[in-house]
Amino acid sequence: MKFKLNIVALALATVSTGAAAFDFGVTASQAKAQNTSWKCTKCISNQQVLGSVTLEAGMQDSKDAHSANSLRYTDGFAVGLDADTVIMDKGYRTQLYSDGLGSEQALAKIKTGRLGQWSMEAGYQTSHQYDADNAQSRWQAKDGVLIKQDGLKTQELALERQKFTLGADFSHNRFGTYVAMSSEDKSGKLRGSMSNGNLDAINIAAPVDYTTQNLRAGVNLKGDNWFAELGYNGSWFDNNIDKLSIEQPGYADAAQAVDNQAHFISLMGNYIFDRSYISGRIASGNMSQEGDFITLSGVAAGNHGANAEVETLDANVKFSTRVMKGLRINASVDYSDRDNTTDVHDYEQVSIDGVTGELVQNTPYDTTRSAYKVSANYQLMAGQRIEVGFDRIETERSHQDREQTDDNIFWAQWRATGFDMWDLRVKGSYADKGGSQFLYDDAVNAAEDQLMRKYYLADKKSSKAEVFVTHTPTDSIAISAHGYYSLDDYSNSSIGLIESNSYGFDLGLSWQVTADLLLSSDGGYQWLDNEQTSARSNYIGYWEADTNEEFGFVGAGFTYSGLSDSGITIGGDYSFAISFSDSYVDGNDVFGMYESSSHHANLYVNYAVSQQVIVGLRYEFEGYEDSDDTQLPVDYYPGTGPTGLTTLGLLDHDYKAHLVMATLQYRF
Amino acid sequence: MGATADPLDTLMKKFEEGKYSKKGADTCIMCHKRSDMVMDIFDSVHGQAGSNGPMAGLQCEACHGPQGKHKGKNEPMVSFGENSPLTAQMQDSVCTACHNDASQMAWHTSLHAEQDVSCVSCHEIHVVQDPVMNPSLQVETCVSCHTKAKADMNKRSSHPLKWGTMVCSDCHNPHGSMSDHELKGFDTNQTCYECHAEKRGPFLWEHVPVMENCANCHDAHGSVNSDLLKSRVPMLCKQCHAGDIHASTAPGDNQSIQTAGQGCLNCHSQIHGSNNPSGKAFQF
Fold first, then answer.
1. Cα-flanking dihedrals φ and ψ of residue B55, to 5°?
2. Which residue of B has its CA nearest to A224?
3. What mean pLDDT is reported for chain B?
């Protein structure tokens, strides 16, 4: 594990800020043009090609493909190419970069151009994320149809992303322009489920076949103290599987993610005054879908698609000014409006209560959010600053349980970076969320308990505190500690989420033991607790639940260069992490074990055959285990699981994976 | 570690006087050519002769200020890092004079600038390749300060940051943005849609908290629950649906279809929104 403390960032603040802001930039200089006599014949690199290319080859040994998420290679022979190379030629510069090309998580890109004038870039990235390779199902997908098999078929749940990128930019004097586009295909299978609309469900290995194309472009102008840009962001999403059908009586087709596109035009800029800065952006957007309904059952004649459409408007302004020596005031206003312009029609629904044929209208949800923030940053004395701030966020919503919520947030921070060997930061905040009366008319099922408060709308009082400490007792040792606590009290909720709190700490140590040996270590622990209650109308079936989550990690690493005279360098690291969650309903542990743990170790040794050629050996290990006792085998005895549910089986992991790679590096 | 006012006063005075050298970088190299760190600038993007960068302008003095009486009387030059007499803001003014574009335009009003994090806190200049621009090294730089984010990467579910498949700057702009949390998108959801456009819709039947903010249910930095969920299913669902008839029932063990398998998502599988005319409850 490579570990670097934040001493550099913090240390910068130790500098006296007694002087007013002073611009040392070339745009403020007294000599803006180069003297033509400046030849600098020696201003060239000794080499035209710099960097390195590394080929690695070896073996991965694992019985679970999940290991490729971290080790990058699946079981068997492994080969990959890393490159980080620069070719320079009279102001032109070409960069070649690849990371794990040939592995399951690979990136490659090339960028070329004349620095400060133009550049072009192309890239390729592939990423595999393995969920499980032992899902079992009697249904196997072919395109969008889940075909029933003779028996259980083992299937892999994994997603593969293949992304291609292209970009170019050009600038001349005060003018600049750029374009960047990407096309990503996502395919594979993920955990899914289909329902018969009643209480029967079949978990499936749901096929995925998406393409997303994104485009960004902009033209900009800038002066010595300002910048302005007109930009465009576009995105097109295409799903080759618009619906899933399953060969099982009583199961209706399920609509999948709908083809859609989004377009945003933005105008943004900044202006730098003598003591003040202002930056702003306004963006107008449109998001729409274009898919036909997968069925016209229950749809009024002539209505073939939802034609859902949303208009957005975002505006943001940030301002910062130094009003006097040592005092800076910041303010910002953010406005965001979402206007859902989708036509409203009647649609026939299926109800789990057996009420079929009920006509329900779709709901075009609108939101408007305004945020006002102001803060002051004051230098108490050399190396000590105090900051205080107030944020107010007003959110209006249509067709929801509450039309308006208001958040008032007060925060303060004290930073001390002027002490010898110690840097301190303490931050605290208090927030109060309120709003309009809750509505219980058309928006809510009449059978719902009227004391129900959805947590993202509910009144809430939040308190947070954080402490950061960095200690450097000697030049060779740096210690950091970070503690945090937060409490969300849903003060007027009787039903729903009542309280949520989290607290924990992180510790770090970096120790340059000798000139050749660096040791580092870090670790931490976190607790997250939720308390929630539930009841039907008039407190029927009232219950309380506590969920306790914990997470811990620890790591250590070293690098040793004491044998570098012999051309040998050694390094390694190890980390361990554990996550678990327990839920208790009325004091009873209802879900059983829900835990994951991972060990990861890495050890390498490199030997420099010459200044150009380095050979090495790398060993990586991962031990991973997770569990979820609520999972069921595909077939279970009546009484050991719910009636009407067919699962994908037990998808837990428990494996040890090894990777041994020989490396050959050539340095230019 | 602190600096006296003298070097800073001298530097400001020198800068205002603007007494640049007569031969540019050649003057500097005469004395500094033995320093590998100095000479490495010519391997970097900033040191390329023939480019439109600093070497086409004031060369070394573009960043380090006018020479003045540095040669001979050893007057200080503008320097960077923890031992510089310049404040973080002053150091940054050197960089932002040129780097004022779409990705850096909000720097002066950014969280990093407010906390006196300087450009050189993250960036290295006199190198062939700035490490923070290397995707496999960027995360290490960020988590050296953002230690909780580092911890979160080790949780049961997280974005693949730990292994370098993703980097922090895929979602955040460290130079500041006009959005909350320095996100690159116009808001949280638009940032997520960059890679998860299948969740964008707009759907005929929208799940309101999903439409409003992905972070209502997910913690993007990592979770002890699967799928980055802030609480596990069905407890998360019941935090909002605790008053409905069938959703209000007490979660049992895996005897319940709300708990076993995929929990509530056994039936409500289209939880991010449905385009099925009969999909109001996100079942189809």
1. -70, -15
2. B97
3. 92
